[in-house]
Design goal:
By secondary structure, the protein is an all-alpha fold. It is built from twelve helices and no strands.
Length: about 270
């Protein structure tokens, strides 16, 4: 009983710390959101009053709309390919044991560990040599290299919960290995596949440095924000940032939601 007050104090301190950390992280985003609806051209206190002028302005700016559309296309393409490759890589790591398996997993997990500026320059140097830079599909390919490791991690965790007898039962019933994967493994991993899709889309939608290096004239919305910042202070930046923030938050929340919807181990549906 004597330890009860100490444990309660530690619990409260932990909660206070987490709350302060959340406030610290959320304050810049909240500032962007608030000032995107400010009537003033330059963010200032006191607030100039509520206005939708800057949000309306970004939808009449063809460069912003094109950049946003590019980001959406790239995010969808990245999400589809990364989820497919992540599933294949996770299944290979789960099902087979082979020489160099650690190296195989390490190579897939490496891109997020490399600084984005170095990764972007390396990708630009390689793609320029083969004449493949400055294209939409180039950005998708580079984002896939970055996002696949996250997809593999999510799906591999789910595969660790599958019972080995499920595939074996399918084989004993006459299913081929491919049929067993399609009918047993994929349904079992369905929630993780959906979570992987949305997380990869969020990673691609937010990514800036690689898209800036390899995209050429094809701007993503993050690159467009940088180009606006290089000129004079533009009040549309806060409005664009609000849109990007909302899209990113929705994608991440949905991905997190599906990672928590896993049925009990061994249950397919």
């Amino acid at each position: 009983m004597k330890n009860r007050p100490a444990s309660m104090a530690a619990y409260l301190l932990q909660r206070i710390y987490l709350l302060l950390l959340f406030v610290f992280l959320a304050t810049p985003m909240l500032i962007i959101l608030v000032f995107s609806f400010d009537r003033n051209r330059f963010p200032s206190i006191p607030w100039g009053g509520f206005s939708l002028a800057w949000h309306q302005a970004i939808w009449t700016d063809s460069l912003v709309v094109d950049a946003l559309w590019n980001s959406v296309l790239i995010a969808i393409g990245t999400a589809i390919i990364s989820t497919a490759l992540g599933f294949v890589a996770a299944y290979v790591d789960y099902r087979y044991r082979f020489r160099g398996q650690g190296l195989f997993v390490g190579l897939i997990a490496m891109p997020p560990a490399v600084p984005a500026s170095i990764l972007g320059m390396a990708m630009l140097a390689f793609l320029s040599r083969i004449g493949y830079s400055g294209r939409i599909d180039t950005i998708i390919a580079c984002h896939v290299a970055l996002a696949t490791s996250f997809s593999m991690a999510i799906i591999r965790l789910r595969l660790g919960e599958i019972g080995s007898e499920l595939e074996q039962a399918a084989w004993n019933l006459g299913a081929s290995r491919f049929r067993a994967i399609v009918s047993v493994v994929v349904p079992f991993c369905r929630q993780s596949l959906i979570a992987s899709f949305f997380l990869a889309a969020a990673i691609s939608f937010d990514e800036f440095m690689i898209a800036w290096f390899v995209g050429g004239v094809h701007e993503t919305i993050s690159v467009r924000i940088l180009n606006l910042l290089q000129g004079q202070v533009n009040p549309k930046i806060n409005a664009i940032g609000t849109v990007v923030l909302l899209v990113s938050v929705v994608l991440v929340v949905v991905a997190q939601r599906f990672t928590r919807l896993h049925p009990p181990s061994g249950q397919l549906y």
